[in-house]
Automatic annotation (TrEMBL):
Protein name according to UniProt: Non-homologous end joining protein Ku
Compositionally biased spans, kind Basic residues: 274-283, 303-316
Disordered: region residues: 254-316
Domain Ku: 53-182
Amino acid sequence: MPRTIWSGAISFGLVTVPINVVSATEDHSIRFHQYHLEDGGRIRTRKVCELEDREVGQGEIGKGYEVTKTQVIPISDEELRELPLPTAKSIEIEAFVPLESVDPIRIGEGYYLQPAGQVAAKPYKLLRQALARSAKVAVAKYAWSGRERLGLLRVRDDVIVLHAMRWPDEIRDPAELLPPPVEISQEEIDGAMALMDTMTREDLEGEEFRDTYTEALAQVIEAKQGDKPLPEAPQPEEPGKVLDLMAALTESVSRAKAARGETGDADVHDLPKKKTTAKKAPKKTPAGKTTAKTEQKTTAAKKTTKKTAGRRPRSA
């Protein structure tokens, strides 16, 4: 059972929902320690007071704001909890917006909001069902760890999830990272769309979405522990130079189809054929054969001759 990170309430107009906040994610990464290469001794980070030049324990350490090098304003955890903010002890919902209106770059870590006791069951369920039925998310303010934050509330299964959000001024302007102007043809866009269609999936379940890095690292540790040869690393394919973008797209579609077990040639949205400047030589008609147009002309000439021959001369 994950531990409670924070306890408070969701304020929804005049409705209050007491909640506990627990982490919604787990980190399964393999952790390393620093050690001394010469003797294998553990290297640790120690907290030392600069004035007394001695190591201090956690109980002797507090927070403070440095005004100058010689003046520090101490701030206690109790003072942080008692900040004169409505969001210090509650998650204040400010608005409801469509999820697609929120840029994903602003969405951070996720936390499950658990109803705190029986008294919270009904208002919690009310907010959860209202969010689910409206297909909207709530944008809220809350204060954790000495700062006020922006958050997003949404429904996942039967639980309300709180996502930390970044403030608008925390997002850097990407304008300086834009590539130089280039021309993209409709043919290339169609090719890219065809590749996207081939790679489209209904979910993110499958072998492609497992953590192979952690698995490979575990194999290396196991081999070294048992004095066994290290597993051989697969040789990556050398990335080729993209000289023809359309050829690269078409080949990518073929490989994606092959990886999914599909057969047949790549279908790149019926791409238009490129125009060629060379003129085609006229087709030669084989001896003894006539073209359809020549046959039609010959037949028409014969009929005209017959009609003319059958007419009587008009008298003056």
